[in-house]
Write a structure and sequence with these properties.
Largest sheet: 5 strands, antiparallel
């Protein structure tokens, strides 16, 4: 049972052959059973094209949990270069979505993230990436649209231009009055 739990937590573990054959034979038998069962696995995904200023959905998928000990996970996130990590805890299910709050910036941002999974007793049983080698996600910054390219800006420009052209056409085509005030003098 101990070898089975050890191999469930660390499938690459090996036992020294300097130990008693009683131990190594039991370990080899358990190792074969563990290979057939498979190792626990978690995958963390996000959609491409994430933007600065929008909430960030992260999908956490339990690919394999043969011993049924993956209970909850903590997703650690930080902006590249920051000294501290922010953590988001979640219960694990087959598919789980965690929505991180929007990041505000005025340029492209790189987020670093890693995940730790825990059993029901709070023991760390699986990791996805780690703090020394986190995975990276790029958030694209799209500068705001200038006012003259927005619908109300274009409408204002067109309406103002139409008013100016109408005023010019009206003054140019205005007919002269029938009577003119004035006086005429003759020269001596």
């Amino acid at each position: 049972t101990a070898f089975d739990m050890l191999l469930a937590l660390d499938p690459a573990h090996f036992l020294s052959y300097k130990l008693s054959p009683k131990a190594t034979l039991v370990f080899e038998k358990t190792l074969e059973q563990a290979k057939q069962r498979g190792a626990p696995a978690i995958d963390v995904n996000w959609s491409r094209g994430q933007k600065v200023g929008e909430p960030i959905p992260i999908d956490i998928e339990v690919l394999a949990d043969p011993k049924q000990f993956l209970s909850r996970a903590t997703l650690f996130v930080r902006t590249r270069g920051e000294p501290t990590w922010r953590a988001a805890d979640t219960q694990l299910a087959k598919d789980k979505r965690v929505v991180l709050p929007a990041v505000q910036a005025s340029k492209n941002v790189q987020l670093e993230l890693y995940l730790r999974a825990y059993d029901q007793r709070g023991n760390e049983v699986l990791t996805w990436a780690d703090a020394t080698k986190p995975r990276e996600m790029v958030l694209r910054y799209d500068p705001p649209t200038p006012w003259y390219r927005k619908w109300w800006g274009i409408t204002s420009i067109v309406a103002g231009s139409a008013a100016i052209v109408g005023g010019v056409v009206y003054t140019v085509t205005l007919s002269p009055p029938d009577k003119i005030d004035g006086s005429v003098t003759t020269a001596p």
